[in-house]
Design brief:
3-stranded antiparallel beta sheet, binds zinc ion, alpha/beta, Nucleotidyltransferase, domain 5, 5-stranded mixed beta sheet, 338 residues, single chain
Amino acid sequence: MKKTFEKSTNKPSKKLLKIYTQTLIVNACPYCRSKKFYVHGKYKFTTRYRCCSCKRTFIPSTGTSIHYLHKKDLFLDFAEIVRDEGILTLKEVCKRLDIANLTAFDWRHKLLNSVPKINKTFNKKIICNEFCITFSQKGRKGIRDESYQSNFTSCLDLNNFSQIISVSDGKFIDNKLATVGPLNDKHIKRILGPKLKNVNKFIYLGKNDSYQKTIGSKTIEFIQPGMISNDTKFEQKTEKIRKNHLGIKIWIGINMKGVATKYLQMYSNYFCYRQIYNFNPIGKLSLNLRYVWSVFTLMENFYKTFIINHTVKDYILPTKRKWKTSFNYSLAGSEIPY
Ligand SMILES: [Zn+2]
């Protein structure tokens, strides 16, 4: 059913105005990150700025999760649901807010991209393990094979599994999608390399020999599955990782009814963040992330690079959606998923 077009009153709601005046803080150009910019008139109800370096104009929300949104107020309602109730099924949220499926899908991904990054440098002692989730191309047009639809499969072929490496200091668990297919030392090095600078004890809970090659025998300690330690504190920490893995698998497989591997990293970031913090997608921390629009629109490109360079899979059936402004922003490496 077509919705009747409501005439825009050009009057922002109180809630939206508060976002623009209090939550969004402009301290750099969202395109080139230069700190030199000046006020350049007004845009609707907000201030327009101009960058001295790249000369482009922008407003406080440029690049954020509310960038280019027509129904900003509805999006704020959506964000409040995520903040208060977590991620609901698309069906449920479409019904509640009377929005289209694709809108709900896009909005959810924008919010998942707004999960604050915990760029933690791990110190001294870390615990590591990996887990796998079935490779999924859910939602990709032209995919017929049922086994690709959900993250559950009876197939035990390792080539059909995404491998996720977990690193933990006992409190925060960082999960990174390493590959699809067998996990080797190159994948491990790519994921763990930057995290190991200050680590002098590396405890590995799995049974993949490739870790030895990457980490070196000097600092590594292998705790084989089933081995019992007398250290209760340590036992609690390893239990936390196991619970995290099981929790993610259940949440993705059952609550989310499967997640495409393309989006797996985002969902995992959200899951891990929520184990320690409350996620407020319209709070200062999330709403001031100016890479959200860029990462959201370039997701297919990142996925393609990941599949081609780091997995046993072929990149097939590219999605056709494109946005003109995707490449206007400079992205830092840490902002790119995978
Ligand atoms: Zn600029």
